[in-house]
Sequence to fold (683 residues):
Amino acid sequence: MPAQRAPQAAAKSAPQRALEKLGLLRDVDLALHLPIRYEDETRLVPIATLRDAMTAQVEGTVVESRVRPGTRRQLVVRITDGNDDLVLRFLNFYPSHQKTLAVGTRVRVRGDVRGGLFGREMVHPTFKAVDATTPLAAALTPVYPTSAQLPQAYLRKAVAAAITRADLGEILPPEIVPAGLPSLRDALLFLHHPPPDASLATLEDRSHPAWERLKFEELLAQQLSQLDAKRERARQRAPALPLARGGLQEQLLAALPFRLTEAQRRVADEIAADLQREQPMHRLLQGDVGSGKTVVAALAAAQAIAAGWQCALMAPTEILAEQHLRKLVDWLAPLGVGVAWLTGSRKGKQRRQMLEQVASGEAALVVGTHAVIQEQVGFQRLGLAVIDEQHRFGVQQRLALRAKLGAGGIEPHTLMMSATPIPRTLAMTLFADLDVSTIDELPPGRSPIVTKLFADNRRDAVVARIRDEVAQGRQVYWVCPLIEESESLDLENAIATHARLVDALPGHRVGLLHGRMPAVEKAAVMAQFTSGALAVLVATTVIEVGVDVPNASLMVIEHAERFGLAQLHQLRGRVGRGTVQSVCVLLYAAPLSDAGKARLKAMLETNDGFEIARRDLEIRGPGEFLGARQSGAPLLRFADLTLDEDWVRQARRAALALQERDPRAAARQVARWLGNRSDYLKA
Ligand code: ADP
Ligand code: MG
Fold:
């Protein structure tokens, strides 16, 4: 019997492919594709009222049409409306232009006015021949965001057709829709084709009720999908990890060289309680740099291990993973815990041995980079996964992690850790499926870091400072700029700085650390700095997260204006870990962009990670915090999390109510808005 063939798909036109590329697949996607602005073709203005830089539509009769000769031929047309005249100038033109714009024709033109040398003119206006009966547009003309392969006119037609076909029927019961908002259908009809008297200002700043309806709808879908994810998780089974009196966790606490802070104790209790349940924990542990998250993770690991399960701890970089490894081995190996180390650079026999230990359960704790979740790694009984700086893992890695974790039918508990606190609005929306624990206090005896700003031409003063610092036996970081376009430039700069500091600091050892070094070499340099053998460490941003050298008291960040705010704050957090007064010097080169200025100002004004996160959200929008959730297209198109906190709150209330009263309506709402994108929310 011949195999059945799928019917040959009809060849797609370029605009159709472009539509798909923009994610405009369903009618409802097109209906939700809103104009970025409007053109007003509903009225004509007298030519005499045209001003420079205005966009306007006028009508007139062609009184002159000539081609200006020369190497760059131009078509120059003059029209008059009886009172005043206007020049239309075309730098590229076809014979058809000349034909339509022949002397004596009445034309309607629309374009940007500029005050030209010979009076007012429009360059490349749109135009058409009209007569006294040609009607004006009844509504403002939408201009949609589009791509080069997708002509505006084609998109306009596609959207207009889609709106009539799309199912925009009311899904929501009236009592959950905030008062004063139009229906979704009315809102969309209005926004695609606003009447001539619509207030352009409220359309532009998105404060019009039609816009508000869309924001509410979008946030509601978002909240509902988060509730779904949370429910789905609650249905999954995780191993309950009981806490035994006198068990491994208590032994670890007793062996620590310090006492937990109040905040550490609180979050450790929250986590311990989660782990004892049969539902998988899905918790974010946030705490400023240096607040002591690692030990909290170690306590959770101890609980899992004591209950007979394995724990995996992953960090985004090898250096950071290695730091964790050293600490955890220090703390847990004496208590009889077997630890395995898995990174990409581990190869051959060693790697095979580690994999065996993981598979047999001999290694109760597995520390490493994302190598930990590669296919060949098979855990015997994974009970807890700890992910440090999880937002730095890519989308694919996070989806792989989820797949891996769920594979055995039993879901391990997950603890994510981050030093970049999620601002409140984001926590309420995109991370609403996550429980959050916050360490809001630093271990005692730390003095706040003093931040100073130095112009680039005052490097000598900075070097003098370094000399003072190392003379007192303290250590210094010098971080070189991130030049994203060129890793090699990055490197050159670090090498030059290293050489300069070697010259300037005779009698002290200056180390160099950069991304191109093999992992073993990086580890060796880092170990020398940790042991105090190196007085100064010049580094590209490889040291950025998590390294912990309490004797380091000065951090110099070169070209600080090129770093993101979260990154600057992370880097600054590398110092101030001991009891000596620490300083962070931000070297900057003029001219500063507005955003660059705002970032440096924030760094000078506050040491508080939450405040930094809030300002970061203000300066650059939510992208930074989303990490993997940012799957190319921003998930929120209509609501703006920095401005619409109020709507977030309303949507949250409505989501809970709808889920409760009408789960099927809730599901339809999610499908309408998120289509196939909701997977990413779970990553
Ligand atoms: P982060 O939250 O940035 O990951 P770490 O876990 O690396 O911070 O902790 C920073 C430093 O503070 C480490 O040297 C750690 O051992 C130390 N530390 C953690 N908790 C305490 C505490 N309660 N008292 C004193 N030192 C602590
Ligand atoms: Mg850390």
